[in-house]
What does this fold into?
Amino acid sequence: MSLNAQFPKQVPFLPGHVFSDPYKESHHKTQQFSNINGTVQEKTNFIHEEFDPNLLDSMKMGTPPNLTYGSRQPPENDYIPRIQPPWLKYDRAVLRFYSYFQESVVENPNENYRIRQVIIYYYLSDGTIHVTEPRVQNSGIPQGLFIKRQKIPKKLGKQDFYTWDDLQLCSNINFYDRVYRICDCDTYTREFYEYMGKPLSLPEQLPRDNFKAQKETKDLKINPPDTKEYKEYFEVKLGGGHPNGGLNKYLSNDRKVLSFDIIWDDASIEGQLNYYTLNYYLADDTCEVKEVRKQNSGKDPYPLMLRRQKIPKQPILTHYPGMTLKKEEFYSPQDLICGNQVRIYGRDCFIYGCDDFTKEYYLTVLGIQQKPATLKQERGKKFYQPVPPYNGYGYEEDSLGSVYSLQPKPPKKDVRKNFTQDQFILRFESRLISEVREENSRRFIISFYCGDDTVQVYQTSERNSGIWGGKFQERSRQKNPLTNDYYTEKDFQLGAIVQFNVYKFQLMRADEFTVNYMKQKSDVFKEADIKQIIAKLRLFADNYPNFDSFLLDLMKKLDKQLKGQIEFEELAAGLQELGFNLTLQEQYYLMREFDVSGEWKLNMQAFWEGIGGKRS
It folds into this structure.
């Protein structure tokens, strides 16, 4: 009997009240598994197994079990289980996630927060998690195991624990009121999620804090800027040759210059578009910028905008040369392409062209085809000089001669037009348009001289009319008040209204020569072209169901009495009733074209056939 069994039962079973038995000699633990004759056996002496008394009786009597109480249920799992438990299926399977959390830093002028990287391990066998932080040298922070291996609840005080399905990339997760950001994982973890049908998203980069940047800057080793010069000096001093790395490049590219046309848009108040020529010397990769001079530009002659030197892409400006240790990146031929911009010490210049040698060099050496850009045409500056009013002497050209020159010259005349058109005179009978009724009955003959575009007006009178006939206006050039241009021959058409000074005239009729002249020059007098008149008349047929109904309606409205011939007044009234807006000159030439008898009457049969009707 053990010593503890001899103690009275009133002694509580607590630490300090239980003592080890000094008389006990065997301290071994009972083994449940043993190996007998090469076979693993299990001791069942200490295992209490429940048994069915009915089954035991049936086995003693030799009666089949199915006749007593039913068939025996098949076992769910054998000694080789069909459904593997997690501790067997996921043995030594661990998911690894790379994450970080942000920790505030106080009373430190260099940083106000720090990024601490941790690794989250999830054990699939039992669903436990442990978090560790990789050690960083000289960080001053105790690092290593951060959270011991355990099941971590989603909320404190509840039995809902995190599973592998809750751990996703680019997401936040809360362990004991500390938020971790999961940013990446290892290859096995990604393959496991793909196997389970829930692939992970793309990883994200770890943020960078000031501590790491200062640590990298502290560990950075920079050689002194004059190390190369010291080496070359000692090499020459010991008898070695003076190095010349750019000699080969100089000999192969001497006198080879790439020339580009650039433009700089000066956006200041008094700025403008400035044109320059950029020369790139292939021998030493230097550039110079020359100004393209223009006459009367108003600028001082400064031939060079930039002397020959290497142009940095981002210039580092210091108070004294050599104060900075940063390396500058300079422009190369690959950067100078037509259509690109080059920044020359704060000035953005646009490359819009180059010469032929530059195009050939880029095509043969670099395999780039230079395509010049097209620029908008720069509008020249226009200076407005007011023209003094017409003084009344001669024509306006005579008065303008004293404006354009100190020594006035006579205006130039169109001699060719004067020689070829001087014999053509267009005469029209017109009436005066006035607010006074008696003035409207006055008749005039207007003569237009095609050689010099002058106009002369005569007034006709009848006996005992009280109106004197004769010259009404001298031959001179007249201006159209609507367009402020001089009258030309195309302005004189039948029915048109012309104004000379304060008098308005309507052209009523023309002589035979004028009618034939306008008919021959149908490109100028388009209303005298009979083909265009008929085509314009046929356009009104679109308002009818078909062309035949248009012709029938036209003939009925024009020849209402079915006489076969109509007067000019009947033609004008019929067209007005139909709504066909033909001018007076078009009606005149229409009447003249289909006047078969010569009695100034329109023949309906000829008109029917002329506009496209079928011949009966």
